[in-house]
């Protein structure tokens, strides 16, 4: 190779042949291509999503009747494993995969920063995920009786977090340093900005989770397991990432996806964009929850900061809703499935944040009912999953080169809406039932409904995979560079799927919607 | 004749990718210790608030070794900055010397920490205190080793002639991570060794 050659992953040869759409493991072992790495993240996260939601449904099923369905210990471990798994094996990697694929395209870069580190992070995440699942199955969940299996679970979780942090560093560095000329930070697309905010929050809070795990592991392995490693207190030390306000941190990139979809599929520029950027930033800041650890700071729920955060987070959400509503009013909404999924994600987000606001109102005492807390978890995680699936539907044509089957997407709109309402709202109602005795008779029915909701989310994850594959099948309608015909941001300026190097020449960016400027 | 694949436009002035990436990694590493030390201080406050002494009977944490380590690590800040300054002047001999000295002082810190562990007479299984102190100081040794590997890798690349006065991001990035490691030690020094 001559010295003047550019490395494959950083070249800008737009005429190069497009890569294979769905990468085989053989082609992506050792690759630094951000598109292959991103695609693999997305597919693996959706597969884990199917397993995670089914596990959540099984754990809920145990709460029905006498509870003889599973042993208490198995059910508890299944519940804890599914909750952590839905965050670390599904939502974070799903957004990270989309970001690894899309952020370099949105900022006009030829590659992700540190492409080999990004690939290494993905493989480490995948390996750690496998170890986590296997260790959990052999009685190694939190509080499990097989000490070596528990150690393996803790180490796997540590590996997962380090891998996700490394992947996040790659995406953040791309957004900060590899933007094309003229693309100032206030001009980056909403998804990229939301990844900057969400990724920064992950970077500041997931290491604290790693610290918790480290203490649990050291005490469990070497210290006698009487304090941090005590079986009964292990999950309590890490459960804060599944609770308010930290749970919102995993929703932040979803807000950007929704905003990008709404702008493109209504054909309208987002009005008062700087206000929307501020709203995403404020939502992120209000989701920093590493300090609210019940195991270390039991009185956190009496803390006015915690209560204020739970209520104030409604304000940036209202600002975002205003921006989305304005785009609907000013544009011509195209009734495509990604737009439907974006709307469902907004609905579930509003319900999740409203449930969170009720949670911090001390006189209601809803925080003491695990059903209500878990109902809010399902609503927020469901909203994040729906946003991720919407993103797959929206960028799927770019990723596969073919139009996705919209029928599958539309069916998914119903599944995600049903999953959120049945899975989350019904558990919130069960939580209320402990306060209002008139509802207590319907406990079992509502829990079964919640389990059905979780199954719907599992089906939705499966359909998302099928939808993505439908774009890659032979005979799919070719997507073209701008698959929707109304693309505003740079990813719609390169071929679908993008060739090695992504772009040829790019003009200097002069606004947040460079493709609209080009048309003008 | 070889067909050369060249970018179509002149290279754009990029902010320094490796330095920014190292800063993000340093921030994440720093937050691990913020979490650990937050738990340490809260737990210690609870124990002292209950009327007990923090360290178990028979255990002690002498201050001489932690102070020596702190001074050593402060010296490494100067040697690391010396390396950055030297490579930015294309003074490779001084850069090699400074990087080598930094690594040696890093090894000295590891040795001193392990020596301190032998002096403390604190059993890891003795309870909360042992777990917390060994986890935090042990994790810092891990961060120090990572920083030393980063510096060693960049030193080898420098020996291979890779850095110049205009482009020495690798050394600067290693320095950023090293400074974060020293800042973490400052936190440990004040919260574990001094205010025990």
Instruction: For the record, give the distance between the C-alpha atoms at the N and C termini of chain B, rounded to a whole number.
Output: 71 Å
Biggest sheet features of chain B: none
Question: How many domains of chain B, as an integer?
Answer: 1
What percent strand of chain A?
A: under 5%
Q: How would you characterize the largest beta sheet of chain A?
A: none
Kindly estimate the percentage of residues of chain B that lie in beta strands according to DSSP.
under 5%
Biggest interface goes to:
A-B, 48 and 41 residues
CATH architectural type of chain B: Up-down Bundle
Helix-strand makeup class of chain A? mainly alpha
Task: Give me the CATH fold name of chain B.
Answer: Four Helix Bundle (Hemerythrin (Met), subunit A)
For the record, what CATH class of chain B applies?
Answer: Mainly Alpha
The first-to-last residue Cα distance of chain A is: 43 Å
Uncertain ranges of chain A: 1-17
Order of helices and strands of chain B: HHHHH
Which CATH class of chain A is shown? Mainly Alpha
Radius of gyration of chain A: 22 Å
**In which range does the helix fraction of chain B lie?**
over 70%
The CATH homology group name of chain A: Cytochrome c oxidase-like, subunit I domain
Instruction: List the secondary-structure elements of chain A in sequence, H or E.
Output: HHHHHHHHHHHHHHHH
Proper CATH architecture of chain A: Up-down Bundle
